Amino acid sequence: MNPPSDVIEAITQYGIPYHVRYMAYSISNRTVILLASFRGMPKSPILVSCPVRIYAAALSQEDRVSLQLNLDAIQSSVPEKAWHILDMNRERRLIVLDGEGNTTSMDLKDKGT
Predict the structure, then answer these.
(1) Which of 48, 50, 53, 96 would be 68's cystine partner, CB 3.0–4.6 Å?
(2) Model's pTM, two decimal places?
(3) Rg (alpha carbons) of the chain, rounded to whole number
(4) Whole-angstrom Cα distance, residue 89 to residue 43?
(5) Would you write out the chain's pLDDT as a tens digit for each of its 113 residues?
């Protein structure tokens, strides 16, 4: 089996995933491993490595929001034991950040529409 792709590299190449599921965690990399399906990838789904802090400056604001919503949806399926082993703070898990280190806003009214 291929090693997990980086979440930002996968999104940059294939777009925002339409289905994400928790699979495992990596102690050595301090990441959560997800199984993600992408519309732009014919051999979907693939394993994706997701760090606790996702620096997503390469993504648009809309894509960062979509990614954050996907990650928020799967966080409850990650076993509490995994969060504890990875030493990840309960309130600050899987956070999508922009290029300046700011958290992703869920408000899209500034899109210019």
Answers:
(1) 96
(2) 0.79
(3) 14
(4) 34
(5) 566 789 988 888 888 888 899 999 999 888 899 999 988 877 779 999 998 888 998 889 999 999 999 888 888 888 889 888 888 876 667 888 888 888 876 554 444 43
